[in-house]
Please model this.
Amino acid sequence: EGNEKLRNKIVAEVSDIITELRNDTTAHQEFEAVINAQHNNIITQFRHDYPTLKEKDYLLYAYLVAQLSATTIAVLIGKDKSVVYNRISRLKRSIKEHNNATAQRYLDKL
Model:
């Protein structure tokens, strides 16, 4: 029973942290900065090349560049995995529709 209580407490704490991160724009910016540093400013360039996307699309792209799994992304955004797959599909379609010179570079990161 003690282990059960400890497990429940840990799950609750982790859940609270994830919920906070979900809405923390500063943490999102810091995450993008890390991705930019590791991938030659790809998120900054992506935002420049696709200025009409929603903020959630930029964050999704950053998660994908970081090679997070659909399951992990689902937990981070608080949605079902099927929703994540749909958003990825729509994001790919948006990138392809722009048909700009760098579209393939962005698609290669997905």
